[in-house]
């Protein structure tokens, strides 16, 4: 009789996991990983859509921050307004 090897330990750990409620958690865990992967790929796609030149022109700020700063400089109050509302008021100026 020899010692228990790493393969046997892995099988015992998996069996214990499944016996003590792991069977219900595996689909939830897989679903969470799938959603996280989808969000990650969506973020990559979004970052590829924005060109570095656009970001540099805004001084590294988000579009909303640049819009709010431009509106404040034009004397438009941005509190409680959506970015679309602020953009419309800025265009009307």
Terminus-to-terminus distance: 87 Å
H/E element string? Answer: HHHH
With helices defined by DSSP (H or I, 4 residues minimum), what is the helix count? 4
Can you give the helix content as a percent range?
A: over 70%
**Could you say which overall geometry the principal axes of the C-alpha atoms support?**
elongated
Number of discrete domains:
2
pLDDT < 50 runs, ≥5 residues: none
Summarize this, please?
This protein is mostly helical and 93 residues long. It has helices spanning 6-49, 52-57, 63-73, 83-92.
Could you describe the 3D structure shown?
- It is a single chain.
- This protein is mainly alpha-helical.
- The chain has two domains: 22-52; 58-93, no CATH class.
- It is 76% helix and 0% strand.
- The protein is built from four helices and no strands.
- It has helices at 6-49, 52-57, 63-73, 83-92.
- It is elongated.
């Amino acid at each position: 009789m020899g010692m228990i090897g790493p393969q046997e330990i892995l099988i015992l750990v998996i069996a214990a996991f499944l016996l003590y409620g792991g069977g219900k958690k595996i689909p939830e865990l897989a679903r969470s990983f799938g959603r996280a992967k989808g969000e990650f790929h969506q973020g990559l796609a979004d970052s590829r859509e924005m060109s570095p030149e656009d970001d540099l022109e805004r001084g590294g700020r988000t579009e909303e921050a640049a819009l709010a700063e431009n509106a404040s400089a034009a004397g438009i109050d941005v509190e409680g307004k959506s970015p679309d509302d602020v953009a419309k008021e800025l265009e009307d100026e």
